[in-house]
């Protein structure tokens, strides 16, 4: 029955119905998303951080295998965003990223203790707050949702996830005022194939990220939704352009075609 409804309902109407249903299901979460003490503290902290990097540049570091072909030591004195399990790379780098972003509930559930111990400001999805026993210093909860596509100019309100943590990092970087953002390690290509957002359990070494231990054996993760992530990237490109800012893709041999490409090594003198 469900598949029949999908087959005979026009796609635009189906999306409206889906988003309306999801918005209705979110209603019980809304009071806490704005009134919970942890969220009030997070919103206050975010207001303090608004435009603190106006006119500066930053690097959003994806976790693709291309990082192994990228000289990351050149980022030591740059503003950087690390995503999800990027901290596995910190010992090799010899420095931490400036900021950290993680929104996927499975990642946060399995790595909450490691995330809580990180020393930099961390932007975490509010729907994963249950995985933290206390409210660590510099932990900032974002009210992120899966539906209602858009680009958030105000992080104190709802933020659309856009099917990838990279899209949320782009919104955080915009809110902090960065005028030029470079993407690296955003390969936009996965060896594992299957239904988008399906939860799977890793059966061995991880071939999709910079380390085989990233989503190593036994780790639960979700297959990528590259189509939806491209919608988010397109919205980010428009938002940055309208504000007189830009996003450039310096990923080595990356498959993403939304943003203008730039040679990574040319960014340093």
What labels would you give this structure?
269 residues, globular, two-stranded parallel sheet, 8 helices, sialyltransferase cstii, chain A, 2 domains, alpha/beta, disordered N terminus
Radius of gyration equals 18 Å
Q: For the terminal residues, how far apart are their CA atoms?
A: 61 Å
Number of strands: 11
What is the total domain count?
A: 2
SSE string, helices as H and strands as E = HHHHEEHEHEEEEHEEEHE
Mean pLDDT: 91
Biggest sheet strand order reads 5-4-3-2-1-8-11
**Largest sheet: number of strands, sense, barrel closure:** 7 strands, parallel
Level-1 CATH class name of the largest domain: Alpha Beta
How would you sum up the global shape? globular
What structural class do helix, strand and pairing data support?
A: alpha/beta
Number of helices: 8
Instruction: Give the name of the CATH architecture of the largest domain.
Output: Alpha-Beta Complex
- Give the helix proportion (percent range): 25-40%
What is the CATH topology assignment of the largest domain? sialyltransferase cstii, chain A
Ranges where pLDDT stays below 50 over 5 or more residues in a row are 1-8
Oligomeric organization of the protein chains:
single chain
How much of the sequence lies in strands comes to 15-25%
């Amino acid at each position: 029955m469900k598949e029949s409804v999908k087959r005979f309902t026009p796609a635009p109407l189906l999306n409206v119905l889906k988003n309306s249903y999801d918005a209705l299901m979110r209603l019980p979460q809304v009071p806490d998303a704005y009134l919970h003490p942890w969220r009030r503290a997070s919103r206050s902290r975010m207001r303090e951080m608004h435009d603190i990097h106006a006119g500066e540049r930053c690097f959003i570091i994806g976790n693709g295998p291309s990082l192994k072909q990228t000289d990351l030591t050149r980022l030591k004195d740059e503003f950087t965003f690390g995503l999800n399990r990027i901290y596995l790379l910190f010992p090799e780098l010899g420095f931490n990223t400036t900021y950290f972003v993680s929104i996927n509930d499975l990642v946060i559930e399995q790595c909450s203790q490691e995330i809580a111990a990180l020393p930099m400001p961390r932007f975490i999805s509010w729907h994963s707050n249950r995985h933290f026993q206390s409210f660590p210093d510099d932990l900032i909860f974002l009210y992120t949702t899966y539906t209602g596509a858009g680009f958030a100019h105000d992080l104190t309100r709802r933020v659309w996830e856009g099917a990838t943590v990279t899209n949320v990092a782009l919104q955080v970087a915009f809110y902090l005022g960065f005028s030029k953002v470079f993407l690296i390690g955003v390969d936009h290509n996965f060896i594992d194939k299957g239904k988008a957002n399906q939860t799977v359990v890793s059966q061995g070494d991880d071939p999709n990220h910079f380390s085989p231990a990233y989503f190593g054996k036994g780790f639960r993760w979700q297959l990528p939704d590259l189509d939806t992530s491209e919608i988010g990237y397109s919205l980010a490109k428009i938002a940055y352009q309208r504000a007189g800012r830009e996003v450039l893709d310096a990923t080595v041999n990356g498959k993403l075609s939304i943003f203008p490409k730039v040679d990574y090594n040319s960014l340093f003198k």
